[in-house]
Amino acid sequence: MSGRRTNLALMALLAVAVATGVLAWGIGTSATGPIVVAHGVAGFAIVALAPWKTAIARRGLRRGRQGHGTSIVLAGLVVACVVTGLLHASGLVDARGPTSPLGIHVATGLGTIVAAIAHVVQRPVKPRAVDLTRRNLVRAGALAAGAGVAFIGFEGLLRVGGARGAERRFTGSHEAGSLDPGRMPVTQWFDDTVPLIEGPAWRLRIADGARDRSLPLERLTPEHGMRATLDCTGGWFAEQDWEGIRLDRLIGAADGRSLFVVSATGYGRRFPLDDASSMLLATRVGGDVLSVGHGFPARIVAPGRRGFWWVKWVTEIRVDDTPWWWQPPFPVT
Q1: Torsion sign across C-alpha atoms 17, 153, 74, 92
Q2: pTM of the model
Q3: I want to staple 42 with a disulfide (CB 3.0 to 4.6 A). Which of 16, 114, 177, 216 is the partner?
């Protein structure tokens, strides 16, 4: 394969890997499964092209072309991203947070985007009509098929070896503390910290434009139970029995397009109003009141959504006419 076509293929594969990685990180439904598979196959295809790219890099270094520094940084980021992705998938390293394999995988993936853009600006490679010949399409198909076989083989090795990664969820997350809230990790979004909330002083504000209510904790007697899976973008999941009040029962016959749920920390997410009947404002988990780290006195339970939607330490639920999608796909802070 020529150097130009190898570079084009790698750029396309990086784009696929980034797109599928973002989607897999944000979607919590079963539709995530094929996306995670595509992400893994793209990663193995990048690895398969490594020998050709290595030869290209050696020629470039001998010629003394501009942009060596960017190329080296990009290569290092791609290697780190692939290695940490494999480590997370295998489950061999049981760690969470920004220094976990998944945390480093995401960070190096973001760095790869920046370095790849800089690399393309310094050394642009333009597609040509001849790149779409039958021979090249066959080669692309063979690369995809080979990467798919490698992905299946990797998954098979995990199962044969009894690795923890063989049991990961369709999102790629590993089980941690299911039906045992005491073992469930305590995590929050980036710069959020666990607030100290006194139950007697806490109030839940519910506003819908027509009325504004403030409810103390004793008014939130659990009425509904739900077994739901919290799937965190930190790479773990836990199925728990939650108890609380369904949001549609809590807000009543409110008119609007979305629910905006706000935490004591200022963190917030907006949900479609139609989802209120499937969501819970939970005050208990596993038969006990929520711990401080898990959202005391009340948190959102949003089945089918990733953990960053499950707002903890809720202080306000507001119904308004803003579309639910009028927000960043991932919280900024």
Answers
A1: positive
A2: 0.91
A3: 16
